[in-house]
Here is the input.
Amino acid sequence: MSALIEFQGLDKFFGSNQVLKAVDLSVQPGEVIVVLGPSGCGKSTLLRCLNGLEQAHGGHLRFAGRELLDSKTDWRQVRQDIGMVFQSYHLFPHMTVLDNILLGPLKVQRRARAEALAQAEQLLARVGLADKRDAFPRQLSGGQQQRIAIVRSLCMNPKVMLFDEVTAALDPEMVKEVLEVILDLAQGGMTMLIVTHEMGFARTVANRVIFMDKGEIVEQAAPNDFFDNPQSDRTKLFLSQIIH
Here is the structure.
């Protein structure tokens, strides 16, 4: 099976600071990759390069066999296939939950309203928020808003989902409800790259764990191997600091 996503020798600079250093990573369809590492190691930048929010400066980045580091790349089109959910929810406060979700399918994809509406309602039911369709974001908890942000992205029918610290801003009791939605997506076969500090969740959801430090992939392994038998000293130090 050919990879859905391929990073090959990917470099990224912010000024003179190199934040990604010759990153090599391939992701198969249906694979769930969790990316771990200290703050500032390049995790979020890696995801943002894949979604065109940051421009890589060297190497190759392929999605579904297509080179994305090309001046002809239509990132607006690419982003329809690569959904991304952030730490902050980015919901429009003046629009209802349903209108937030339908904005992309109707305005960007030009889909029939009845078809998009049926999908939106199905997804809302799937995340346990069918009764919130007419609510405004301010009427929802942080966990509910984050689940709506996930539904909004899913309603574009992406081929891959990127999650960048989606529980970092949530109260502890709200974290579980969001992680359960992501776990459900994983069990349904969605290809995902997930940046998180939730170690127990990482072990449960991932097919493979990637550890990054200073812009490089230091180690990658299956979850149990990664957590129970890390190979590099840098990985061992990282895990010793966060797992007590």
